[in-house]
Amino acid sequence: MARFQYKMQNILDIKYKLETQAKTAFSAAAARVMQEEEKLEQLNRRRESYEEEARRLVSERLNVLQIQQNQLAIELMKEAIRNQMVALHIAQRNMEMARMKLNEVMTERKTHEKLKEREFEEFKREVESEESKAIDELVSYSFRGKKTS
């Protein structure tokens, strides 16, 4: 019996590898987004602690130098938070680009798998047709052989 050999198997193999690479890139981008979100949360917690300290400093005996230092720290935290929000936005955009690339690669892979499936079905029909013809020939040969005896 003939063995099925997909003509473009090497291309399909490459598509599998590209999909694996795209999945890896997407998971790395998603991990980066999570890291950036965690950094942003930490900065927000730090700013809140500075603001809490500012409220404490104002309610106690006034120490102008400490209050000024605290206000400077709050402003620095606000700036760091803005910068972190930009970094988070960039990471999210990169993750979205990786997601789109992954979808594209998966679509290409699925297309090749469908082509392989169709080619296999056609191959199967051809083999079945050849087997059917061989059986018909065998039956007719056997029938003719019995008739002449």
Give an account of the 3D structure.
The chain is built from two helices and no strands. It is mainly alpha-helical and 149 residues long.
Per DSSP E runs of 2 or more residues, the count of β-strands stands at: 0
What is the helical fraction, as a range of percent? over 70%
The Cα radius of gyration reads: 35 Å
- Low-confidence blocks of residues: none
Task: Choose one word for the global shape.
Answer: rod-shaped
In short:
This protein is an all-alpha fold and 149 residues long. 91% of the residues lie in helices and 0% in strands.
Q: Key terms for this structure?
A:
2 helices, mainly alpha
Please render the helix and strand layout as text.
Elements: H1 9-59, H2 64-148
